[in-house]
Design a protein that fits this description.
alpha/beta, nine-stranded mixed beta sheet, globular, UDP-N-acetylmuramoyl-L-alanine:D-glutamate ligase, four-stranded mixed beta sheet
Length: 293
């Protein structure tokens, strides 16, 4: 199988007030891509423990292809508490399995068949997984039509300027939210200009195909050289926002790979993430009117 879409990085349990739910941006992303009918795979690592076995079983039951290695570290967990607006606050455990994703011959083989990949900053907090992600990107085909998505996720100080710079240099699509953009702008030395100007600077500086900026209830933007798409955020009854951003990215990338325009892909991404916000947990089944059009 060629032209696979890969989500790479953390696989873990979100321990929510109502119980634990499988989580981690790469699994969320790959799962939602698969719902749009494209071949996808999640790459991560779990521990040799019941929580790890349960992640593998859970993803298998969802029909999600996976290259998840078992390593001698505990399976990752995140304590999630929701604030009164339903916005998640995270306590992410350190030195866990997904910090130690090994680079293997199987992974190199997968890289050679990958059309699009999504990776974040959180999974690069440890040098082992960081090196694995970089080697995977090196081993991908570089024909000019591949999509390399860096989804910034600044959590608990698990990031450095060097990691962010390297990732932006290696990606061709950057996804960032408004709060992250403010933080990144301070680090990079241009804090005083408006958000859109910051996006244009990053788009040009890193020679990006696209920059996706999400602003919560204030809508979202997709910047491309010479053009910008804006979509308002639909008003919905929010159950929780866990995984909504990952579903946005998945719907957008799936749509672009299916030949949709940036505007069409953007609209689909907004509709998909709005639906996920109405559901509990990060991996609800999407309605067919979203996935089949």
């Amino acid at each position: 199988m060629t032209d696979i879409v890969v989500g790479m990085g953390e696989a873990l349990w979100d321990v929510l007030p109502e119980g634990k739910k499988i989580g981690g941006a790469p699994a969320n992303f790959a799962y939602h891509v698969s719902q749009f009918g494209l071949p996808s795979e999640v790459v991560s690592a779990v521990g040799d423990d019941p929580l790890g076995a349960e992640i593998v079983e859970n993803l298998t039951s969802k029909g999600l292809n996976q290259l998840i290695e078992t390593v001698p570290y505990p399976t990752g967990t995140v304590q999630v508490e929701l604030d009164p607006e339903g916005i998640p606050m995270y306590d992410i455990k350190e030195n866990v399995a997904w910090d130690n994703i090994p680079y293997t011959a199987r992974l190199e083989n997968l890289a050679g068949r990958t059309k699009a990949v999504c990776f974040g900053s959180l999974a690069q907090r440890n040098v082992v997984s960081r090196n694995t992600i970089n080697r995977f990107l090196d081993a991908m085909p570089h024909k000019g039509d591949e999509l390399i998505v860096f989804d910034v996720n600044l959590r608990q100080g698990f990031y450095t300027k060097d990691i962010l710079c390297n990732s932006m240099e290696r990606c061709n699509i950057l996804k960032i939210n408004d709060e992250e953009l403010v933080t990144v702008s301070r680090m990079f030395g241009y804090p005083g200009i408006d958000l859109q100007d910051k996006c244009w600077i990053l788009l040009g500086k890193y020679n990006l195909k696209m920059l996706i900026l999400t602003c919560g209830i204030n809508g979202s933007y997709v910047f491309t050289p010479g053009a910008v798409s804006f979509q308002p955020t639909p008003k919905v009854e929010v159950a929780d926002t866990v995984g909504a951003g990952d579903s946005f990215t998945a719907a957008f990338i799936a749509s672009i790979l299916k030949g949709k325009s940036v505007q069409e892909a953007h609209a689909k991404a907004v509709q998909t993430s709005a639906f996920v916000c109405t559901q509990n947990g990060a991996m609800p089944v999407l309605p067919k009117e979203l996935t089949e059009n």
